[in-house]
Design goal:
Immunoglobulin-like, signal, 11 strands, 2 helices, mainly beta, six-stranded mixed sheet, five-stranded antiparallel sheet, 191 residues
């Protein structure tokens, strides 16, 4: 009987320590949902990108898995190369504006606030939640093609610091770059 009691106690302790509570605050979801196991990966290649100009991308939906707020503290690029930089980020409730695809303008000129407040939109089980749109403003510091494999969002929820990664592969193609496969394919399809 003793081995069975130890096994049950161990299982109870593991369940208690891994299960979250309302005091932990809600978790942030970016282009995904707590109700599906879907992992989203997106690739974006922009042509003829020159240095020191803003290139804004958007259309990604964020939500939280319960009541409360997730305050985004910062966003870092994952494995940046070629001088790519994240110049700015912001977010806004969906429904107030059309979703942003991409534009060669700063986020603030596209209806995004200079700084978003907190993500409070709760994820809907049926996927019908309006959510909160994330906008990212990229740039590059040199004349070569620049690249990042994704973004890491650092946020605070109920006083706890957390992160969520988003596999958003972005290439800012230098004008006429035929040596980078994704850029070459894009330029060849435009001909």
């Amino acid at each position: 009987m003793r081995p069975l009691v130890r096994l049950i106690l161990t299982a109870v302790v593991v369940m208690v320590t891994t299960a979250g509570s309302a005091a932990d605050g809600p978790r942030l979801y970016l282009n995904s949902s707590p109700y599906t196991d879907d992992e989203v990966s997106i690739g974006v290649a922009l042509p003829d990108v020159v240095a020191h100009r803003p290139y804004s991308l958007g259309g990604w939906v964020m939500c939280v898995d319960g009541p409360g707020a997730a305050v985004i503290d910062r966003i870092d690029l994952i494995n940046p190369s070629g001088g790519i930089v994240l110049q700015a980020f912001s977010f806004r409730r969906r429904g107030d504006h059309p979703m942003l695809g991409n534009a060669e303008r700063p986020l603030t000129e596209l209806g995004f606030p200079a700084r978003g407040s907190a993500v409070t939109t709760v994820c809907a089980k049926n996927g019908e939640s309006l959510g909160t749109e994330l906008g990212l403003q990229y740039g590059k510091t040199g004349e070569v093609t620049a690249h990042a494999e994704g973004v890491r969002v650092h946020y605070t929820s109920a006083g706890r610091r957390r992160t969520v990664d988003f596999a958003l592969d972005v290439r800012l193609c230098a004008p006429g770059d035929m040596s980078t496969e994704q850029c070459r394919e894009m330029y060849e399809s435009d001909e």
